[in-house]
Amino acid sequence: MRRLGMQAYAPVADAMRAYTEARNASSADEIWLLEHPAIYTLGRAARESHVLTPGDIALLRTDRGGQVSYHGPGQLVIYLLIDLGRRGLGVRNFVHDIEAAMITVLSGLGITATRREGAPGVYVDGRKIGALGLRVRHGRSYHGLSLNVDMDLAPFTRIDPCGYPGLEVTQIVDLLDHKPPATLLAEIGAQLAAALTAQLGYNDALYIDGLNL
Questions:
Q1: Which terminus of the chain has fewer CB atoms gathered within 10 Å of its CB, N or C?
Q2: Which residues are catalytic?
């Protein structure tokens, strides 16, 4: 479990890809917790027409699945470098487990979240709060999820989020009935990391700060 803090998108994407390509049957699974500076990313099959008015926010095509997404400060990003074959997981069950972990954490905050058939991610009253974008190569995953915690949501209005025109988004701070602590993002990160490890059947985790990018 690596806590990386704020990191530029491209070097982290390169590091995930390199780790996945170099790993072998005994390589440890890793979960990376971080934030990105403001950036729009396009999945492998994404159409640039879903980027409406990017303005001064950089646009980068990447090798994950899915359409266009936005990352920015205050959004929790978790990358899952998992050997799915070793854990006996199919992609569909893996996606289900990730969504279940987000739903569990949100429920603990008094927020009722649900899935949507055919549209991976987590929703609150029809508004998207958690997104997924994965890549699986030779049975091993990288990329992962983003959960909106306490961020500027305006950049989402300049794209069709996840390829859906008019899709509204929301975030945790706007759904709480109390003033959030300054440490909210770190607390949600710890809770979601714990929920993911439990959902995926890990018995323990080693926490490490940083990554040599």
A1: C
A2: 162
